[in-house]
From TrEMBL:
Keywords: Transferase. It comes from the Eukaryota. GO terms for molecular function: transferase activity. InterPro entries: CAT-like_dom_sf, Sec_Metabolite_Acyltrans. The keyword Transmembrane does not apply. This is HXXXD-type acyl-transferase family protein. Pfam families: Transferase (PF02458).
Length: 446
C-alpha cells in the first residue's frame, strides 16, 4: 500500500479536566518502575469501528471532548506533562508529573480515504495504520513537551478508528485499559461529573519501605540515559486462535506434563516460542528464550490495589537451547513458562526494584534479542467492551511502538470466550516460513 492515501490531520485541540481536584496540585512522583520506562516508547492501541448508517462526525467529536474532560477529572495526571527537578549540591535529579502546568491531553481529528476492507483484508498490517496514532517514534521522556495522552479519531470512508496513545512512564497496560474503559464508560452512560466512573484509579505510587516519595537518579542530563530505537523492516500479521484452538493447546500441554496447572496463556506462549524458533532455524546449541509481561500488583506482599495507576510490570522468561526446545514437546516448554510465572513472587520483585533504584532505564535495543520471543499485553484486558456510540469494534490495532523481530502482542478475540488474536512481528523470511509451517497453521484451524 505504498501508493495508498495517507492520513490527513484536519484539526487538533487540547482537553483539560472539567475541573482539577485538589490533589492534582501536588506533583506525582514516579516510581522506579515508571522511571525505567523513560527511554522506551508510548503505548499505542486502538479500535476500528464501522460507521453507523446515521453517522455524523461532529457530534461524535463533541461528545468525545466532553467525555474526555470528565474522565480526566479522575485521571488528571494524563492531562499533565513530565518535569525534571535538578540540583547540583546536593545532587538531585528526578522526573515527576506536573499535573497543572500543561495545555492538557490532545485530541486529533484526522481523515483517510480508505475503507475498512483496505485496512483488514491485506495479509500484512498496512503501514498506514501507524498513522492512526499520535507520538509516532516518540519516547516517554518526550512527555516533557508532548502530551502524555492523545486520542486520535481517524475517519475512513466507511469506518472510524479511535486510537489512544499514553506515555508508558505514566501507565502500563493495565492502567492504559483502565483509562480507556473508563473513558468509554463516561461516553456511554453520560453519567454526572460527581462520580462518573466505577473504578477509580489510585495514584499513590509504590515505593519500598523507607524509600520515596521521589527517586534520585544518578544523572545530570537526559542524554546520559535516553536513546532512540528504529525498528528493522518487518512483516506484521494477525493470527486468530479460536476458543477451541486455545483449549486444545492447553489440554495438550497439561496432558504431556501430567498436570492441570498450565494456563491457556502459558501453553500459547510456549507454542509461539517453539513455532517461531523452529522457523528461524538457528543452530541447535543457540540459547533462546520466551519472555512474558507480568503484572506485579497482586504478587507483592501486601498486594497493591487492582486499580493502582502507573507501571507495575516486569517480564519473566523460560530459557532453553534450540535443541532442548524443539526435541521436547509442547508440555515441556509450557512447564518452563509455568515455572517462570509461579516463581515470580514478592522476594523476586523487590530484588528487581533494588536494581532499578540504581538508576536503570530500559533501552529498547535491550528488548530486541534476535533469539527470543516476547509476549506482550494480555488477552484478559477488556478491549472490545469500549464503545463510543459506534457499536462494537471490528478490530484492534496498534502503532509503531515496541515492534521488533519476535514480538507477539496478545489481544482478546472479537468473539470472546477465551479466544485470542496475536499480532506477530517477524523478519519477512521468518514470517513466510511460519505461514508454511504445518504444525503452526494447523493449530489455528483446529
Amino acid at each position: 500500500m505504498a501508493s495508498s492515501p495517507t492520513v490527513q490531520h484536519i484539526s487538533d485541540c487540547f482537553i483539560k479536566p472539567l475541573y482539577y481536584p485538589e490533589e492534582s496540585k501536588k506533583p506525582v512522583y514516579l516510581s522506579s518502575w515508571d522511571l525505567a520506562m523513560l527511554s522506551v516508547q508510548y503505548i499505542q492501541k486502538g479500535l476500528l469501528f464501522t460507521k453507523p448508517s446515521s453517522f455524523q462526525l461532529d457530534p461524535l467529536l463533541q461528545n468525545l471532548k466532553e467525555s474526555l474532560s470528565i474522565t480526566l477529572i479522575h485521571f488528571y495526571p494524563l492531562a499533565g506533562r513530565l518535569s525534571t527537578l535538578k540540583q547540583e549540591n546536593p545532587h538531585i535529579y528526578t522526573v515527576f508529573i506536573d499535573c497543572i502546568n500543561s495545555p492538557g491531553a490532545r485530541l486529533i481529528h484526522a481523515n483517510l480515504d480508505l475503507t475498512i476492507s483496505d485496512i483488514l483484508n491485506p495479509k500484512d498490517v498496512p503501514l498506514v495504520v501507524q498513522s492512526f496514532f499520535d507520538h509516532d517514534r516518540a519516547i516517554n521522556h518526550d512527555g516533557h513537551e508532548l502530551s502524555l495522552l492523545t486520542i486520535q479519531v481517524t475517519e475512513l470512508i466507511d469506518g472510524v478508528f479511535i486510537g489512544c496513545s499514553i506515555n508508558h512512564a505514566v501507565a502500563d497496560g493495565s492502567s492504559f485499559w483502565h483509562f480507556f474503559n473508563s473513558f468509554s464508560q463516561v461516553f456511554k452512560q453520560k453519567q454526572s461529573i460527581i462520580n462518573p466512573i466505577s473504578k477509580l484509579p489510585i495514584f499513590n505510587h509504590w515505593f519500598p519501605e523507607g524509600k520515596g516519595p521521589f527517586i534520585n537518579l544518578p544523572y545530570t542530563h537526559h542524554d546520559q540515559f535516553i536513546s532512540r530505537y528504529e525498528a528493522p523492516h518487518m512483516t506484521e500479521r494477525f493470527f486468530h486462535f479460536s476458543t477451541k484452538s486455545i483449549k486444545k493447546l492447553k489440554a495438550k500441554a497439561n496432558q504431556e506434563c501430567n498436570t492441570i496447572k498450565i494456563s491457556s496463556l502459558q501453553a500459547l506462549s510456549a507454542h509461539m516460542w517453539r513455532s517461531i524458533t523452529r522457523v528461524r532455524k538457528f543452530p541447535c546449541d543457540q540459547m533462546t528464550s520466551c519472555r512474558m509481561a507480568i503484572n506485579n500488583r497482586a504478587r507483592l506482599e501486601p498486594p497493591l490495589p487492582e486499580y493502582y495507576f502507573g507501571n507495575c510490570i516486569q517480564t519473566v522468561r523460560g530459557i532453553a537451547s534450540v535443541s532442548e526446545l524443539l526435541d521436547n514437546d509442547l508440555g515441556w516448554a509450557a512447564w518452563k513458562m509455568h515455572q517462570a510465572v509461579v516463581n515470580h513472587k514478592d522476594k523476586e520483585i523487590r530484588e528487581w526494584v533494588e536494581k532499578l533504584e540504581s538508576g536503570m532505564v530500559y533501552q529498547l535495543r535491550g528488548f530486541f534479542d534476535p533469539f527470543s520471543v516476547m509476549m506482550g499485553s494480555s488477552p484478559r484486558f477488556d478491549m472490545y467492551g469500549n464503545e463510543f456510540g459506534l457499536g462494537k469494534g471490528v478490530a484492534l490495532r496498534s502503532g509503531y511502538a515496541h515492534k521488533f523481530d519476535g514480538k507477539v502482542t496478545l489481544y482478546e478475540g472479537i468473539e470472546g470466550d477465551g479466544s485470542m488474536d496475536l499480532e506477530v512481528c517477524l523478519l519477512p523470511d521468518f514470517m513466510a516460513s511460519l505461514e508454511s509451517d504445518k504444525e503452526f497453521m494447523d493449530s489455528l484451524s483446529s
